[in-house]
Amino acid sequence: MKKIILFLFAIGITTMSSVCMAGMSTSKVRKETRFLTDKMAYELNLSNAQYNDIYEINFDFLYSIRNTIDYVAKGYQWAMNDYYDALDVRNDDLRWVLNNSQYRRFMNMDYFYRPIYVTNKNWSFRVYNIYVNRNHFYYPKPHHYQSYCGANWRPYNSGNSYYKNRHKHDSYYSGNHSVRNERVYQANRRSDFGSVTVRPNTSTRPSNMNNSSTRPSSSSSSNASTRPSTSTSSSSSRPSNNSNSSSNRESSSNRGSSNSNRGNSNSSSSSNSGSSNRRSESTSTRSNSSSTSTRSSNSGSSSTSTRSSSSTSRRSSDNSTSSDSNSSSSSRRSNTGR
Asked: Where are the alpha helices (DSSP H) in the chain?
């Protein structure tokens, strides 16, 4: 019983570790495309223009095989043929984006040149054997990560490569780049799908497996007309990890400066307000003091006037009393004489 449990557990681990994308959604295609393109940009030293173009090429390739790669793992001959046809188209498009030295390095990296293989009847990306952390990216998302829907795919350009003559390199790789080259095809096939047992009588692709009918709408062809220029200044700049952080730092600096200005303005306003209040209080105090002085002066005048009036009244009363006394004395003297 214990052996059975361990066996089932091992099967579960193997299943989870495989990257099977049956009926893979468009969002899943975008994520896998970005991971593969990000690692190519890191190892091949891609410019920003190359990074964006190769994202499109990888997206078209993965989307075109998303409904057939499971049939490859099941041993259908027509599915293998479709896969290698799509891979050769993808690698030919890359030949017009990469320069000669970049393309030679690209061909020597199986996890880029032939990115998918099958083991234990499950298919997966070779790049995950090299870069095991599937959430780590060296560069930001391409500028059209969400908007690109296959506008530059070859069937939409009369079977011609949209990328031919877009990049001005000193030299392009001119050797044989086809994975289906007769000299190496069998070796490539054994390396990619050697564990797959090909089913007999499966060389003809069913009519209901038309890849072009399941591609994203080509209504987004306007993307091609609005793509950034591949001028020298654009090509010389690599995808930057710091673009977002730089923008954030600049924004933070501006916000800090703005806050400082507002702080200084508020401080100055408070200072002016305080000075105005102090001047107002001082003026009010002087006014009150003047008013108090005036009231004191008026009070003093009133008091002096009252005291003068009282003194005059008392003097009048004394004079009157003296007059009465003199009159009484004269009267007594007169009576005595008689």
From this structure: 2-17, 26-44, 48-65, 69-73, 77-95, 100-107, 110-113, 127-130, 185-193, 222-225, 232-235, 243-337
Classify residue 231 as left (phi > 0), alpha (psi -120 to 50) or beta: beta
pLDDT in tens, 281-291: 444 444 444 44
- How far apart CA 90 and CA 179 sit, in angstroms, is 11
* pLDDT tens digits, 57-108: 999 999 999 999 999 999 999 999 999 999 999 999 999 999 999 999 999 9
Do residues 92 and 177 touch, judged by C-beta distance below 8 A?
A: yes
In the predicted structure, residue 293 carries a pLDDT above the cut 50: no
Nearest to 54 by CA among 65, 66, 72, 42: 42
Long-range contact list for 105-112, CB < 8 A, 24+ apart? 105/43, 105/44, 106/40, 106/44, 107/173, 107/177, 109/43, 110/191, 112/36, 112/39, 112/40, 112/43
Helices (H), 155-242: 185-193, 222-225, 232-235
Cα–Cα distance measured from residue 71 to residue 63, given in angstroms and rounded to the nearest whole number: 15
